[in-house]
Every structure is written in structure tokens, then in C-alpha cells.
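Z., the sequence and structure:
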Amino acid sequence: MVKTEKVARVSVTLPPELLEDFDEVIRKMGYENRSKAVQDAVRLFISERRWLQEEKGPQAGVLMLLYDHEVRGLEDALTDVQHNYSNVISSTMHIHLTERDCLEAIAVKGDASEIRKLSDELSSKRGVKLLKTMIISL
């Protein structure tokens, strides 16, 4: 990391298709450069995760999970994690998006700390492309 007076310069490694998609989206949105778009994306990630990390007590919501079902062992690992959190999972819906990609909507209700642990375990699995959390306090 190279630091200047007001910014820190970092290097990020991305798969080519992710970078192409990112560039296409930010171009359509009118961003003039990647740096501003990356800053906004990081801020959004931090605000979502911080909110979930700081909440306490009863919560309800949905975890949206996008993953590559062809990654070896991933589906079994995701199933095992979900079985370990049956106390907070109310329901799941599985949608086949493409030949490789699947979307799961996992309805949750329970203590914030348990939902947080579930979310962290799911998102850390190799082959999980995205986990979006939409949670409300009860």
C-alpha cells in the first residue's frame, strides 16, 4: 500500500469477467473513473456489514446468496451450514439462474448474533460470488 497525504493507493486482483462487468456498470452509471466507483462500493459494503455487526436482539430478513454450483463440494458445505442454523432459518428458495449459477433466498428470524454467524459462514465459502443481507430489527 502506497500512502500519500490524503489517499492510500491499493492494488486489487479481479477475474477479467468481473472487471468487465464492473466497468460496464460504472460506465452506464456515469462514473468517470474506477477509483470513485470502488470507493462507493467499499463504503456500501462497510455500511451494510457494520450495521449487521452492531445490531443486537431479534431480527428477521433474507440472505440472498449467489454461487457457482459447479465448485466442488460447495453445495454440500452450504447445506451443512444451513443445517447448523436451522434455529434461525425459516425457509429457503433455490433458483437456477444459468448453467453454473444458483441463487438462494434464505429467510431468517432470530437473534442478530446467530444471523450474523450464518451470514459470515455462508459468504466465506469458496464459490460464493455474492451474499446480500436484508435484515430488520423486530
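The domain at 14-54 is CATH 1.10.1220 (Arc Repressor Mutant). Helices lie at 16-29, 34-54, 74-84, 112-123.

Let me know what you think.
H.
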